[in-house]
Fold this protein.
Amino acid sequence: MKRLRRLSCRLPLLCLLALPLFAASQPASSATPSPDEIVGLDDGFDPGANGTIDVLVPQADGKLLVAGGFDYIGGGQALGFARLLVDGRIDRTFDVDLNGPVKTLLPLDDGRVLIAGYFSKVDGVDRYGFAALQADGRLDQDYDLGLGNAPVAFMRQPDGSILLVGVGTGLMRLDAQGRPDADFVPFFVTEGWYGSVYSAATQADGRIVVAGYFEPADGSTPLAFVRLNPDGSWDAGFQQPSDEDAQMLAFSVHKLVTLGDGSLVGAGPFELPDHGSGKQTGLLKLHRDGGLDADFRPDPNAAVKDIAAQPDGRLLVAGAFSRIDGTQVLRVARLNADGHLDAGFAANASAPTNALAVLADGKIALGGEFTRVGGQPRQRIARLEADGRVETAFIAGTDPVYPGVDATPRCLVQLPDQQLLIGCGFTYVGTTRAGMARLRADGSIDPGFVAPTIEPGYSNAVEVISPQPDGKFLIGGRFTKVNGVARPGLARLNADGSLDASFAPPNWAGSGEPWARAVALQPDGRIVVSGLRVVTDPLEHQPTMTRLNADGSIDAGFHVPALDNPVEPLQLLPDGKILIAGYFGRIDGTPRRGIARLNADGTLDAAFASPFQDSGVVNILQPLPGGRILIAGYLPIDGESQWLARLNADGSLDRSFRPAMPDEAIQSLVVGADGAIALGGKFTRVGGETRRNLARLRPDGSLDPDYRPAVDEWITAMAQLADGKLLVAGDFTGIDGLTRSHLARLPAAGGASRRLDVDAAGTLRWTLGGASPIATEARFDVSLDGSTWTPLGQGQPTANGWRYAAGAALPRDTGFWLRAQGRTGGREGATGNGSVSLLESTLFARLQTAAVYMLTPQAGVGGRLDPAKPVAVYAGEVRRFEVVAEPGYTVEGVSGCGGSLAGNVYTTAPAGADCTVTASFRDDGGDRLFADGFDAAAR
């Protein structure tokens, strides 16, 4: 149990300096809630705190650092500073001992955390307002910058370096490891200005905009904003507000953030004069090159305490206001980039909100003084879904009498807006007869979706659902009509569930009754479908496979392979080839037991050979990053029957993968971006350890000892959701002691992350990490208005996501939106009961007319290059590096970036790509103070 100390501020000057950033914390309540009141066992997020939350900062692993006026949070004691796990429980491995509150903080890449505030001791050691904590919360005693006062904010720059705002000279820079950057000196220090910095933001090109009060040495008009080049020099081209406005804004912009197009939004307790359209209060926007945006007028009616920019260009605002953009909105709001209210976001807090944070999975953390958010009880801390709804426990149908579904849905699809489409095997959800339903994140039924009428009407008539990027989706199964219209086993539905009349496939099986068992959508809109044709006289089920054009017509250019048994799962690979699996033993007369790969035209790919010979059935396919394939089924390996294996890209067994094996068959599996594998089925032991129906393996196949959900019956379908949570379906009625009928959502085992970026050359990168699902394919789109999208192309796989070189296809010198969308899930068929979903990320960006490239200096032993850090240059621009040899060394050579050396200056060729300048030095045998070995050791 952590001992409690009274919070105090023993450094009055420090306290005064930090006051503008946030309002002071309210004292903690004397009543301490019980653990059951703080943390439940369900999959919602409700840590609860008995005092105010003032600071929220997410870590890269999904954990959340929280500071404020509490002494109890997440089910445990913590005096004003804590770390929460992804599910909201307090992280008991994080132990902090401070004698005062934390007011700002920043996690470092190596796991340490920089903190600043009103404290003077950490772990009993003198640290006046600034310190570094190790990953476990204890003081890093080797780190002490000896600052004279505490920073009021930390700011991460694009290259990983860190700005300390409001400390010493007003602005200080550290490298990514926290070491002072001696090469960065703000111009207002060297040129004799008087400068006071209150907030700062970095633009995409590395330039830094700071807000505060800046008085030139020559006595000319003071400035409220200045922009610094990456080296700290003054960018005099940054436009200023009028002198009258600058006077009102001096010392008054306490938070500054950058939007994707380079414009900036500031918040603070200011009121600008009426210039003909009313007074402007609380929020302002600066154009990319400075100057106030007169059209940005949200005008909140009370204080804004925190703001954050979403990747898609929208702006989150927290504070004490009750109106913004002329509309009643209580204390938290989302604005579009133009300052108008996003009316679809309605969180509404019962009391002021002090802090917010955009999380790596797209959700939003909210802290403050409230006790209710969005109508839900939340004690001063909440997590919001991307649409602003409070994250709550998931109960299908959310009916108080009949929660859940009446039978097991085998199709579980998450849509890009995070809603869930369920189908394939049930009749009722809650009290609604559906057979197919769209559920919100809390499990409530979306009335905007009306399930189609399927004939014949048995519950498993639909066996596969495959979503399309345009919001429509394909359904396949054993049916003849949809909404009374003839559809032979395959149909396309609109987003609202109505039949898409433009897609009218013929009997794609050729003869007999078509029965679709697997469906896959190609990037060009064509559809690969496999299944059976049922012949009634005599009764036979004959395997078949074909490809349809986007309008449903048969693609005559696709070779229909001859199969001796049906293909059940199939997956499209990034190179256009088709991975198929099932019960078959021969394809076009060639032996291929259980698994095979087809070329894009349907012919057999001879380069991929099944590792199984006389027997073997593959029910589940999961392509992995790097080309390997995870498979499940009946797998005869080395004379034994196994349920799980991993193949190399050519189909051979990957014998380095030795997974903990279940004692019964695997019905479904999902894989996270971190490589962890969740298994569902009807088993009782995995790797000799008790695991009933659900288990989790580490990336190397070993059993995760800490993952032990209690599931009372077998699991037949699973979907890894965008936030890392696991949606499971099966015959169960309870999980972890909670009543859940046939459908449940489990908390994430770790944080999920996804990030979309574009560089100056127009190359897009979509990175998926942590517990995020992996994507088996990805496509990229561009938009000029954020709603009408133009396809760019298909991404190429990378080690941790996808890449697409858009180049000149992207607009320049204007704001635009990018979208990455990928299909996730282990299969696109019926028997393996895996599910296919769509994962999406959106980015608001702006590119210069001239691309910007990074030139990276690299010097060997015996000298250095100046500048010594990467520099950004525009396309066609040259850069000069001074080459400096240490005593006893001479320059041996300099190369890279197409440049040439003249004297001790190396000049690059005009920039056309990122590149590296490399300098090497030769030992000339001259006298040095130390011998080489000792000198190196001393370093």
The chain is about 5% helix and 40% strand.
